[in-house]
Amino acid sequence: MGSSTYLTFLWNLLFSVLGLLILAFGIWGLLDKESLVSERIAHLGSDPMLFFVLVGLAVSTISLAGCMGALYENICLLKFFTGGVIAFVILEILGGLVLYSLRHQIKGSLQNTMLVAVLRYQDDPDLRFIMDEVQMGLQCCGVESYQDWKMNMYFNCSSPGVQACGVPASCCLNPLENGTITNSQCGFGALGMEEFAAQSIISLGGCAPQLSRWLHSHRGVLSACFVFLILVEVGGFLLATKLLADLAFARARGRQPGAW
Fold first, then answer.
1. Which of 78, 90, 141, 246 is at a distance of 20 to 30 A from 211, taking alpha carbons?
2. 20/93 same-domain check
């Protein structure tokens, strides 16, 4: 085996692991929301976590083909891998251009989605999952402020239920009880408190401005990661192309592909 064979194999092994991690994250999301139970399986196609499952499957499949192609110096598998990498690079560049050109519309769309998630929090498990992850990840509450949860019919202070005047546990500064179990009632009554008292229990700031600040402060890092990902994929493509050229040269000279 030549150096291009080893490098191509190691490159694809790394991305195979990455693809499996993405796949595992998607499956975890589906299981966490119980999207795979028989009552909800019909709505699986609209589940956002399915995107991670499909991407993870695609990345791991293409990378595994590259691994096997490099290990056994199989031309068909290597060509399949290079075609897959080209498709990924094109889709990523097009996706990046679309996201950048429509960034203002996307910002408004995200804000509207969060507003819908507040209104339908108890009725839509997908929106509830997304809103909880955003609120816990960014340490925020509501869209513009924690007061937005008054728009939810269950959290509104006029509601007769136990959740009246409350906010979801994902708004709490410390939602875990004893560090392990989520205290689902930690936000109860927060909307009826003065801000000074509420700020010791929940996050007061909204998720829309917090998300905007996070994206603005990390735009350089995100751009660098995007460019780095493209360069790494192009590097893998060039390694596989070099290996294919070496195999073609070996065959032209009448040697076995693995005899170096």
1. 90
2. yes
Q: What residue has token string 């990345």?
A: 59
Choose among 16, 3, 34, 22: nearest CA to 260.
Answer: 3
Q: What is the per-residue pLDDT across 30-40, written as a single tens digit (0 to 9) for each?
A: 787 666 555 55
Quick one: 178 and 198 in the same domain?
yes
Residues 97 and 223 in one domain: yes
Three-state secondary structure along the chain?
CCHHHHHHHHHHHHHHHHHHHHHHHHHHHHHHCCCCCCCCHHHHHHCCHHHHHHHHHHHHHHHHHHHHHHHCCCHHHHHHHHHHHHHHHHHHHHHHHHHHHCHHHHHHHHHHHHHHHHHCCCCCHHHHHHHHHHHHHHCCCCCCEHHHHHHCCCCCCCCCCCCCCCCCHHHECCCEECCCEECCCCCCCHHHCCHHHHCCCECCECHHHHHHHHHHHCHHHHHHHHHHHHHHHHHHHHHHHHHHHHHHHHHHCCCCCCCC
Tokens of 41: 């399986």
- Domain range for 189: 121-214
Distance CA 35, CA 27 (A): 10
In sequence order, the 6+-apart residues with CB closer than 8 A to the CB of 236 are: 8, 11, 12, 15, 66, 85
> pLDDT by residue (tens digit) across 118-145?
999 998 888 898 899 999 999 999 999 9
Domain count, the chain: 2
**Same domain (yes/no): 61, 183:** no
Encoding tokens for residue 161? 């239920």
| 9 lies in the same domain as 131 | no
Q: Is residue 114 part of a domain?
A: no
Q: Is the same domain home to 188 and 246?
A: no
The confidence band for 257, taking pLDDT boundaries of 50, 70 and 90, is low
